[in-house]
Amino acid sequence: MSSVRSRTVVLAALAAGVGLTAVVLLARADSALAVDVDGHSVTLPRSSPTVASALTAAHVSAKAGVVRAAVSGHEIPGQANPASITVNGVPAALETRLKRNDKVQVIPGADTVEPVDERQTPGAIPGLPDVERELWQPGSSTTNHQTVGRWSGEIVTNTPGTPGVASRAVTDKMVALTFDDGPDPKWTPSILAILKEEKVPATFCVVGYSVKKFPDLLKTERDLGHSFCDHTLDHAHLPKQPHDGVVNQVKGMSDLLVSILGGAPPAVMRPPYGELSPDAIAVSHANGMRVLTWNVDSKDYNKPSAAKIQSNVVTAVKPGSVVLMHDGGGDRANTVAALRPIIQALKAQGYRFVTPTTVPVVP
Fold it and tell me: Has 130 been annotated as catalytic?
């Protein structure tokens, strides 16, 4: 009897072991599922049966296609053609959950060239010099028909229209007064008061560090009808700047004026010290600004007497002159004292006061 009982216990134990193994194997099988990814079978844990985990398990990436610039072919940052994913032929996302034996297919994004747009743009005004040292009457520009890359801005085609009317140097008795290096709270208000009383417009070539300190003076100049000129952020020596530095100084100043005054960017740029480089000219033109210097120097920065400043200006002015003076950058008491006599002397000679951007356009 004891041997029978022993065999019974052993058989029962074996049976129990077989059942436990079956349960374990069933549990393991139940805890994972198999799916197909691009023809390869992978097993996923039931805890995260998503398309993303299936791609990871299959070492497959949903590669996006590159979008390239229309002319240069450079890859355009921030633009791409996403891959497409289907599950059993139905479009799916990375977070789509999968069932056993689902079929996942990944189609990489195609490499493409950016689309192009049509636009009409004004061409260069014919006849204007790269650097204006005297007043010019602008002509009229042609209108170009262009196709451009939508995101790169690269010009694909450029078809000129009818040629415009050429510009010409001013020969009438017109003169422009320009003031550099302001605004300055000590000298600018006095100059503005004289200009207002004499009903004379002027151009203020403002510098960034002064504009940031005295934005209300800038707005007063605007409200009184005067024009502005970009004189760089820091009164920089532009020929000594690398390209990025020139862009920062010139475009940064233009952007600063727009941020304070609103409206359009300045139409002209005057280089500090009159120093120019091909890069400075190109950057100014690329940002829609003409380059303005002068042909009459008051030399007020040397602090001569008011009478000498007046003489420096009045004896040198001719039709189309651009006069350099300063309302900032130092003691300008003698400039203030000389201003009204200069204006009255030139009026007596029959001169009309304009700004470089208010000269009548060539008819």
Answer: no
